[in-house]
Amino acid sequence: MCNDHPVQLPRRGLLAVSAASLVAGSLAAPALAQTAKPAPNAMTPDQALKRLMDGNARYVANAPDNKDFSAGRAARAQSQHPFAGLLSCADSRVAPELAFDQSPGELFVVRVAGNFVNTDGLASLEFGVKVLGMPLIMVLGHTNCGAIAATINVMKEKTQLPGHLPDLVKAIKPAIDLAEKANAANPLDEAIKQNVRYNVRRLLEAKPIIAEAAAAGKVKVVGGMYDLATGKVALI
Ligand SMILES: [Zn+2]
């Protein structure tokens, strides 16, 4: 791990640690120095995407791999090697480890209603890329997203929402604006897709960590749409 680019995490981010300790490889980062074997997530972005989509196909077919959750527990206590980061919606109907038929430790999941990039979520994904070496990030929207639907309504009705809900509306608004311009037959579906595409772009432009890793071909950022009714994820 080079320390030319100290990792900056927000003060209340995922892990309140110094850049030095990240670089030193603590926090269950891959213990590369201790073994000659490649890390379990040492694969190309395309291999990671295939593994993710193959898992979704098993989920859709109701044919998940048999999993022995106890087997990897001791290893996971020492380190983690996720091969994909997921930026997905907090919606309780979307469960990434199930939807992609993956075991604990294989996905690095950031969830927020409306699956958009914010500072803490970005820092979490940066940690996954820079420290844990994951080669893939998927922004995962889903059909019938309540957060997006509510934002469309709030913008239309000019409703004042209580609490911190206006922050969600503000974060999702750019996608609604893009969807309006597209003038699609189904405004909600269009907004959900635009929101995924918009946040894929934001991640690809997120300097220095993810943008540089993407430019170097070390990480791929893709968008997906999860169909609540079938469980199928389509790349968008
Ligand atoms: Zn949602």
Kindly describe this structure.
The structure is a single chain. The chain is α/β, with parallel strands linked by helices and 236 residues long. The protein has helices at residues 19-23, 45-60, 73-78, 96-99, 119-130, 146-157, 165-182, 187-204, 209-215, and strands at residues 84-88, 107-111, 136-142, 220-226, 233-235. The chain is 42% helix and 11% strand. Helix 6 (146-157) crosses helix 7 (165-182) and helix 7 packs across helix 8. It is globular and about 60 Å long. The two termini are 33 Å apart. 38% of the residues are buried. The model is unreliable at 1-21 and 23-29 (pLDDT under 50). The structure holds zinc ion.
In short:
The chain is of the alpha/beta class. Helices cover 42% and strands 11% of the residues.
Topology (elements, then pairings):
Elements: H1 19-23, H2 45-60, H3 73-78, E1 84-88, H4 96-99, E2 107-111, H5 119-130, E3 136-142, H6 146-157, H7 165-182, H8 187-204, H9 209-215, E4 220-226, E5 233-235
Parallel strand pairs: 1-2, 1-3, 3-4
Antiparallel strand pairs: 4-5
Helix pairs in contact: 6-7, 7-8
